[in-house]
Structures are given as C-alpha cells and as structure tokens.
Write a structure and sequence with these properties.
alpha/beta; Rossmann fold; 9 helices; globular; binds adenosine-5'-triphosphate; binds magnesium ion
Amino acid sequence: MSSVVVSMESASVEREGQTVLTGIDWQVTSDQRWVVLGPNGAGKTTLLQLAAAQLKPSSGTVKLLDEDVSDTDPGELRPHIGFASSALSRRLPYGETVLNVVLTAAYGLTGRWKEEYEDIDERRAHRVLTEWKVDHLADRRFGELSDGEQKRVQIARSVMADPEMLLLDEPAASLDLGAREELVRLLGGYAGSPSSPAIIMVTHHVEEIPTGFTHALVLAKGSVAAAGPIAETITAEKLSAAFGVDVEVTETDGRFAARAR
Ligand SMILES: Nc1ncnc2c1ncn2[C@@H]1O[C@H](COP(=O)(O)OP(=O)(O)OP(=O)(O)O)[C@@H](O)[C@H]1O
Ligand SMILES: [Mg+2]
C-alpha cells in the first residue's frame, strides 16, 4: 500500500520580501519517483527544502509523512528524510573516511566524534556503500574521491538511515559522461525497486532522468507550470513554454533527450 509522503496545498514561500514559490499544490506518494525541472531561479531548491523540513511555508499547508510542518518539530521529521545536495556535501568533513561519512548519518551527524557504533550499523553502512558501488572506497578519505565517487557516497549516506523519502538536488551536476551514466544507471535500479522510498530529484537536464521515474513537475517563476505522469509532462510543448525556448523532446527506452529546434 502506498502512502502520501508529501502533501502541499497552496504552499507559498517568501524570502527577503520576494515571493519565491506561490500556490504550490502537490502530492507525492511512497511509490512515486518524481523529477523536478525548471529554469534557474524557478524555485526548485526551495521546493526541495520545503519537502525536506528545512523550511516552513510562509502560507498554505505542507504535510510531510502525515505531519503538518507548521506544528511539528523539524528535528522529528528530518531523520526520516534522506537529502543530498552540493550545499550539504560541502559540510561533510573532507578528512573523514568514506565509511564514517556514511556511518554518521545513522546518528544525523556530519562527523565521527566519540559515539560508539553498533556492528549492525557498520554492516548496513557497507551494504549501502556496496549498493552505490563505492564499498571499495570505504577506508579512503572522502575529500580525496572524484566528484562522481563523492556523489555516490553522498547518496549512500542519505539512504543509510532507511528514509521514507529520498531528495536529490542535481545529483549529476559536474559529472563527466561516464560518471553521469553510472549514476543514472544506479538511480534507475534504485527507482525500480519496490522497496525503495519515494524519490524526488531536481535536475536541469532531461538526459539525467533515470528509467523508472514515474512523474515530473515543471516549475516556472515559482509556480507549477506542469505536473503529472512523466510521459505526459516532459513534452516539447510543456518544456518550451516553461523554459521559453522552442525545444524538441525525444524518448528512447525510458531515457529522454531535449534540444532547441
Ligand atoms: N536564502 C535565500 N534568501 C533569499 N532569496 C533566496 C534564498 N534562496 C533562494 N532565494 C531566491 O529564491 C529564488 C529561487 O531560488 P532556488 O534556489 O529555489 O531556485 P532554483 O530553481 O533551485 O535555481 P537553480 O536552478 O539556479 O538551482 C531565487 O530568486 C533566489 O535568488
Ligand atoms: Mg537549485
């Protein structure tokens, strides 16, 4: 049985007196895998911060895992939400080992201080590292890894605590073609597994949407320009309107491509 993990009704966010998001109505269930697209500054990262309990709406309602964020301690919600972004990765200790970077997520920390870890946590950390194909790097220092390896370690870290939703802000940004394809393939496998949580991934490129993603939301100027099942939403007409460029969109074996006409 799927359950609703994100429910937004007329949600708006104001920052420094500017309206950044307005009138967002959106529901995500545990069996859905969403991609969020939209021009620079459209509000994608802000939308993810709302879904991550890092930000409360200025008006409207945001419910996460059945709790209204406006009257819930965010500290109670966050352990159930996996979140990876480059802003967050800059806070990870670069001298720490990969194993510890993942292990500390079990305690919601960013460094290994003096906690005692249980064997069971260590076994799980190796399991998630293996799942994201980085277990051979477990003893290396996080800061010494390539960008592609670091991105996969970050995702391993964000699923370590067995979250009920996984939020990814541009996970493939800055990766070379090989590293991008490896990440997209791993994300596709993860998205396709019925035991995986709900996934929401922000990206700039339709080429980075893994197979198995079910829904898309297109943001433009802080509002939902289009949202729904992926094939009905990632269309030339809808992307052209949102990005203000006349684009053509193709889909081959569940992967998309877009270019200006
Ligand atoms: N902390 C903040 N304080 C004030 N304004 C902010 C803050 N964070 C974001 N904004 C503004 O909110 C708007 C949306 O920003 P957001 O980062 O959500 O966009 P985005 O769609 O993720 O863009 P990008 O594609 O460039 O990552 C922008 O105009 C931005 O300047
Ligand atoms: Mg952003």
